[in-house]
Write a structure and sequence with these properties.
78% helix, single chain, 170 residues, mainly alpha, globular
Length: 170
């Protein structure tokens, strides 16, 4: 359901020029979404009762849907000349993840008797993705063409920490 609203939300919160006012960079939105999914999955990993786990699981799925929409809007901003190819690569990666995750979680449950280690592993993967995205944003803001970086709303945590706008390439 969140996938239906994700493109509109990502556009609203992601592009600096969407409504002619400063908005959150799309990469920052993805950072917040990854952090939220990681926290939700870690909460479910504590193995609460089903009635308690439904809320964080629902929120995690909504955040993943919004992240999906944000990624599919970010890719054409960076690669306008290869939009079809890049969109196919992102879609294929999502399909692979959708196939592998249930298999891996099932194998972990068979081996350990609990889903908790697998869920904590997923939370750790989301944390690694968060760190990677923060670092890539800092590098992309320096290496990408200025127009592409502005269109994509690249977020550089280094510039935020320094209090300096780091939109120009080094």
């Amino acid at each position: 359901m969140a996938t239906l609203f994700a493109p509109r939300l990502a556009e609203h919160f992601g592009w600096p020029t969407t409504f002619g006012i400063a908005m959150l960079p799309i990469a920052l939105v993805l950072v917040v979404l990854l952090a939220g999914v990681g926290v939700c999955v870690a909460l479910v990993g504590t193995m609460p009762t089903v009635s308690v786990a439904v809320g964080p699981l629902f929120l995690a799925m909504a955040l993943l849907g919004m992240g999906n929409g944000a990624v599919f809007q970010l890719v054409p901003q960076r690669f306008p000349e290869r939009m079809g190819l890049e969109t196919d690569v992102v879609g294929a990666a999502g399909g692979l993840g959708g196939f592998m995750l249930p298999s891996v979680l099932g194998a972990i449950r068979d081996y350990t008797g609990s889903y908790a280690p697998g869920l904590f592993g997923c939370a750790a993967v989301f944390l690694c993705g968060l760190i990677l995205l923060l670092e890539l944003g800092a590098r992309w803001s320096q290496r990408w063409d200025v127009a592409a970086a502005q269109r994509a709303g690249i977020y550089s945590y280094r510039a935020s920490l320094a209090g300096v706008d780091d939109e120009s390439p080094a």
